[in-house]
Design brief:
Layout lengths: L6 E2 L11 E6 L10 E2 L3 E7 L3 E5 L2 E5 L3 E5 L17 E7 L15 H9 L4 E3 L1 H16 L2 H17 L3 E3 L11 H17 L6 H7 L4 H12 L3 H19 L4 H7 L5 H12 L3 H12 L1
Parallel strand pairs: 1-3
Antiparallel strand pairs: 2-8, 4-7, 4-8, 5-6, 7-9, 9-10
Helix pairs in contact: 1-3, 2-3, 5-6
C-alpha cells in the first residue's frame, strides 16, 4: 500500500519582494492538494467554486469561493482541486517577521500583530469581507515593488479590523511548536484524506505513528482535541455535504460514497454534525442557490 509522505513545503519569496504572491487559474494549484506545512503565514483567496477546507484538525465545506489566513507551521491541505470549479486562486505567503521584528511592536501594527497571532488556529473570513477585498487582492497581485507591499498591508489592515471571521481551531490545535509533531500528524491526515472511503482502523494509524493504540489515542486527542473517530467522521460528513450540494446521487449512494457502511449511522452522524438530516440539508442548500 502506497503511503503519502508528510511534506515540509519550502517557500521562496518572489524576486525583488519580501513575500510571495501567486495566481493560479482554475485548478492549476493541484500540487498543494495534500497535507503540508511551512513556517510562512499564508493568505488564500479562492475566486468562486466550492470545496473542502482542511486546516489543522478542522474540516469544513465552502461555497462561492473562500478567504482564509493560515498560521505559521499549521498543517493544511490546498483548497482547490479538479472538482472545485473555481475561476482562480491567489496565494500570499510571508514569514511572521518578513518586515523585520521591530515593526510589529509599533502601536500602528498592533491589530495586524493580533491578527497574525490569531492565525495560528486558522481564520476563515465571511462573505462581506470576501466580497469587499476581491478587487483589492487582484490589484495587489498586479502591483509591483513598494505599491504591492502597501496594498498587501492595506488588505491585512481590513482583515485585522473586521468582525466577520471565525477561528477554525480556537485553542484546540497545538501543532506549531514541534516539527516532529507536524510530520507525524501530517502523515495521519494524509492517510485519512486518501483512505476515508475505506475502513480505517486504529491499529493501522497507530502503526503509521509508531505508537501503541492507547498512546496514539491520547496523542491524537491532545493535539486535535478530538478523538480519531470524530476526526474521520467529520471528514466523511464534509465529503457527503459536498456531494449532497453538487451531485445528483441518492442519499443512500452518498452514504457509501463518503465512507460510511451503515445508512442509519450515517444519518445519525450527519444530524449530530449539522443539526439537519441529509435530505433537509440538500433541500435547504437547493433553496439558497435558487
Amino acid at each position: 500500500m502506497k503511503q503519502t509522505s508528510p511534506t515540509y513545503e519550502a517557500v521562496n519569496p518572489n524576486i525583488g519582494s519580501s513575500f510571495s504572491c501567486f495566481k493560479f487559474l482554475q485548478n492549476e494549484n493541484l500540487k498543494s492538494n495534500f497535507w503540508h506545512y511551512h513556517p510562512e503565514i499564508e493568505l488564500v483567496f479562492v475566486g468562486g467554486g466550492s470545496g473542502k477546507r482542511q486546516i489543522g484538525s478542522t474540516i469544513s465545506y465552502f461555497t462561492k469561493g473562500d478567504l482564509v489566513l493560515i498560521g505559521s507551521n499549521l498543517p493544511h491541505c490546498g483548497l482547490t482541486n479538479e472538482n472545485t470549479r473555481n475561476d482562480y486562486e491567489i496565494v500570499v505567503q510571508f514569514l511572521p517577521d518578513f518586515l523585520g521584528a521591530h515593526i510589529w511592536k509599533t502601536p500602528e501594527m498592533k491589530k495586524i500583530t493580533n491578527l497574525l497571532d490569531a492565525s495560528k488556529g486558522g481564520i476563515v473570513f465571511g462573505e462581506s469581507v470576501k466580497k469587499s477585498l476581491e478587487s483589492k487582492i487582484l490589484e495587489m497581485y498586479e502591483a509591483t515593488s513598494l505599491d504591492k507591499l502597501i496594498k498587501f498591508l492595506e488588505i491585512l489592515n481590513v482583515l485585522a479590523n473586521t468582525e466577520d471571521f471565525k477561528i477554525l481551531n480556537a485553542g484546540n490545535f497545538y501543532i506549531q511548536t514541534q516539527v516532529e509533531d507536524n510530520e507525524r500528524i501530517n502523515l495521519i491526515f494524509n492517510h485519512v484524506k486518501n483512505k476515508f472511503k475505506e475502513q480505517i482502523t486504529l491499529e493501522e494509524v497507530a502503526n503509521l505513528a509508531n505508537m501503541t493504540e492507547p498512546s496514539f489515542c491520547r496523542y491524537f486527542k491532545k493535539i486535535t482535541n478530538k478523538t480519531f473517530t470524530q476526526f474521520v467522521n467529520e471528514y466523511r460528513i464534509i465529503h457527503s455535504m459536498k456531494l449532497l450540494a453538487e451531485k445528483p446521487l441518492s442519499i443512500n449512494e452518498i452514504c457509501y460514497e463518503s465512507g460510511f457502511n451503515n445508512f442509519s449511522y450515517f444519518n445519525k452522524t450527519f444530524k449530530e454534525y449539522t443539526q439537519k438530516s441529509p435530505s433537509q440539508y440538500r433541500k435547504e442548500f437547493k433553496n439558497i442557490i435558487e
